[in-house]
Specification:
This protein is α+β, with helices and mostly antiparallel strands. It has a single domain (5-119), classed as Threonyl-tRNA Synthetase, Chain A, domain 2 (2-Layer Sandwich). Helices cover 45% and strands 26% of the residues. It is built from four helices and four strands; from the N terminus they run αββαααββ. It has helices at residues 5-24, 50-55, 59-75, 77-88; strands at residues 30-36, 39-45, 92-100, 105-112. The chain has a four-stranded antiparallel beta sheet with strand order 1-2-4-3. Helix 1 (5-24) runs antiparallel to helix 4. The radius of gyration is 15 Å and the shape is elongated. It starts with a helix and ends in a 9-residue tail after the last strand. The relative contact order is 0.21.
């Protein structure tokens, strides 16, 4: 089966949305995945709830939300790595993630053992 970059990116986006729903209890509003060399970059929009946005109006709340959201993803780090590895067939070396309390957007960068983009059409 020929794997195209677009179909693989769409598959990753769909799987991450399902992971969010299963693990975190709710999914983001939109997910966009980009494969770049040995990295998979995922942008998740609309990850904060209205209550979290309200808390982010103050520095203490902003730091609290970032900490809790980071810990939630960290607790599912192994499952996320396995999910991505299952889809792309390449070992995930590391995951970097951060959330913007201003835009409600999360970025996830999966660093792979080899260059995935070279293998795609």
């Amino acid at each position: 089966m020929i794997r195209t970059k677009g179909s693989l990116e769409a598959s990753i986006s769909k799987s991450l949305t399902q992971w969010e729903k299963d693990f975190l209890g709710r999914g983001s509003v939109s997910v966009k995945t980009d494969i770049l060399r040995d990295m998979i970059i995922v942008t998740l929009k609309g990850v904060l709830t209205p209550a979290e946005y309200a808390l982010c109006q103050k520095d203490e709340g902003r730091l609290s939300i970032k900490k809790v959201r980071c810990e939630l993803v960290e607790s599912g780090r192994d499952a996320l790595g396995e999910l991505i590895q299952e889809i792309v067939g390449i070992e995930v070396i590391t995951l970097h993630t951060d959330i913007s309390t201003k835009t409600g957007e999360r970025l996830m960068v999966f660093k792979l053992a080899t260059d995935l983009e070279k293998t795609l059409t």
